[in-house]
């Protein structure tokens, strides 16, 4: 039981962490801005490295000493990622990702590093079907459980499963020990 409650606490903390991260919704075929800003503002862009990575740790965009460096960019982001150079001075290293597809859904990380400062930001991108193209797909709408609700259902299910598992382990071991004791009483050699 105690272990079960520990698991519940851990899951609650994890889910809180996720919900603190930035969430962005984009539509298939259109574009979206993934935000990333440094908290410190008086840093010179030419002293900074900014690395954008996707859920598979593939490169979307690198800014090395304030300059674009696209040699390592993953082909799937070719001509689809764009920065806002006029915003660098303000510590704003957001990127715009265009031609969105469902494959883009997931976690994006922005790493800002400087000799005296480093920061990581996580953005969660959710892709919704473009409403222009799919006015008639009623099946799509049935699947649209609000994100927070589905998160809670998942947590609840995990907790219930864990509690069931722990309870059954305790029950089984009790039965097993009783069985062993009985056996040794019955067969004294
Ligand atoms: C984005 O999509 C449009 C239409 O499907 C296509 O013409 C264009 O080449 C695509 N651009 C990129 C960079 O993939
Ligand atoms: C950063 O720049 C982008 C593009 O201009 C803008 O949409 C976004 O709001 C800016 N973010 C901040 C924190 O200023
Ligand atoms: C939905 O489908 C009907 C016919 O199947 C069509 O007349 C209507 O324009 C469609 N609506 C949208 C929003 O695409
Ligand atoms: C996107 O879809 C989700 C469910 O998949 C829904 O909860 C949300 O409201 C939608 N967002 C927009 C901006 O349509």
Would you kindly provide a brief summary of this structure?
With 189 residues, the protein is α+β, with helices and mostly antiparallel strands.
Descriptive report:
The chain has 189 residues and is of the alpha+beta class. It has a domain at 21-144: Immunoglobulins (Immunoglobulin-like), CATH 2.60.40.10. Helix content is 34%, strand content 26%. The chain has 3 helices and 9 strands. It has helices at residues 2-20, 138-142, 147-186, and strands at 22-27, 32-34, 49-53, 59-64, 67-68, 81-83, 95-97, 106-114, 117-128. Strands 1-9-8-3-4-5 form a 6-stranded mixed beta sheet, with no helix packed on it. It has a 3-stranded antiparallel beta sheet with strand order 2-7-6, with no helix packed on it. Helix 1 runs antiparallel to helix 3 (147-186). The longest helix has 40 residues, at 147-186. It is elongated and about 85 Å long. Residues 13-19 and 139-146 have low confidence and may be disordered. One 2-acetamido-2-deoxy-beta-D-glucopyranose binds next to loops.
Summarize this structure as a short list of keywords or feature phrases.
189 residues; alpha+beta; Immunoglobulin-like; six-stranded mixed beta sheet; three-stranded antiparallel beta sheet; 9 strands; binds 2-acetamido-2-deoxy-beta-D-glucopyranose; transmembrane helix; cell membrane; immunoglobulin domain; transmembrane
Order of helices and strands: HEEEEEEEEEHH
Bin the helical content.
25-40%
Distance separating the two termini:
39 Å
Over the alpha carbons, how many angstroms does the gyration radius reach?
25 Å
CATH arch. level architecture of the domain at 21-144 = Sandwich
Please name the CATH topology of the domain at 21-144: Immunoglobulin-like
Low-pLDDT runs: 13-19, 139-146
- The quaternary state of the protein chains shown equals single chain
How many strands? 9
Pfam families: V-set
Subcellular location: Cell membrane
GO cellular component, one term: external side of plasma membrane
Organism: Sinocyclocheilus anshuiensis
């Amino acid at each position: 039981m105690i272990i079960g409650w520990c698991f519940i606490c851990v899951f609650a903390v994890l889910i809180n962490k996720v919900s603190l991260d930035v969430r962005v919704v984009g539509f298939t075929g259109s574009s979206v801005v993934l935000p990333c800003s440094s908290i410190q503002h008086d840093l010179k862009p030419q002293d900074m490295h900014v690395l954008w990575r996707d859920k598979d740790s593939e490169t979307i965009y690198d800014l090395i000493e304030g300059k674009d460096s696209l040699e390592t960019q993953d082909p799937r982001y070719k001509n689809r990622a764009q920065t806002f150079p006029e915003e660098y001075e303000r510590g704003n290293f957001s990127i715009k990702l265009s031609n969105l597809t469902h494959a883009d859904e997931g976690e994006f990380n922005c790493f800002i590093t400087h000799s005296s400062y480093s920061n990581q930001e996580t953005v969660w991108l959710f892709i919704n079907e473009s409403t222009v193209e799919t006015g008639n797909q009623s099946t799509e709408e049935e699947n649209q459980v609000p994100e927070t609700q589905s998160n809670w259902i998942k947590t609840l299910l995990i907790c219930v499963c864990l509690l069931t598992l722990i309870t059954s382990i305790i029950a089984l071991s009790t039965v097993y020990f009783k069985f062993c004791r009985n056996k040794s009483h019955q067969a004294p050699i």
